[in-house]
Every structure is written in structure tokens, then in C-alpha cells.
Amino acid sequence: METIAYSDFAKLEIRTGKVVEVKRHENADKLYIVQIEVGETKLQTVTSLVPYYTEEELMGREVVVLCNLAKAKMRGETSECMLLCAETDDESESVLLTPERSMPSGIRIV
């Protein structure tokens, strides 16, 4: 496993968020387009969680979000952040990381 300096880790803006909108991507079987409230900001992510969660299971969920990931286009949609998950090597399971207790959206993960 490669190690990094704390200063590299400190560059990551990881915060709590709340899923406020979920819809299936029109041109991709495994993708959702998700709006996440992170404090006063709303960020959009394109995520491949369709095999693991229904729209109803995602809606309103408290999540952990990498907020300062460079924007990317995925199937024509802009992804501004990343939902953090624990995923098996064979991708048979993917589980969203969530705060142990309810926290306001936007709280920094340290």
C-alpha cells in the first residue's frame, strides 16, 4: 500500500451531505444523477449505484461526499463530487459510507 503525507490527505474536502434528488440517467443502465446538499451548496454526482440501491433508498439519505474532486462529464452529465462507498473487489456489493449519528450536512470529515 502506498502511503501519503498528511498534507496530501488534508487537501481532500470530505463532508457530510444529504441526498435531495435522485433520477435515473436516461442513457445509462447503471447510473443515477444525484443532487446532494452539502451545507449551503448543492452538488451533482453521477454514480453507478443502480445495482445496489433504489431511488427511494437513496432519497433523503445522509452520505459522505468528496467535494473537491475535479468535475468530469459522465455520459453527458456533469459530476462535481463523489459519494464514498465501501465496495468489494468483484463489485458484487457497494455500500454507502454514512455518519454513525445524524449530522448536519456540510460537516467536515477529519
Automatic annotation (TrEMBL):
The keyword RNA-binding applies. It comes from Photobacterium jeanii. Residues 8-110 form the TRNA-binding domain. This is tRNA-binding protein. GO terms for molecular function: tRNA binding. Coiled coil: none annotated. Keywords: RNA-binding, tRNA-binding. The keyword Oxidoreductase does not apply. PROSITE patterns: TRBD. It comes from the Bacteria. CDD domains: tRNA_bind_CsaA (cd02798). Pfam families: tRNA_bind.
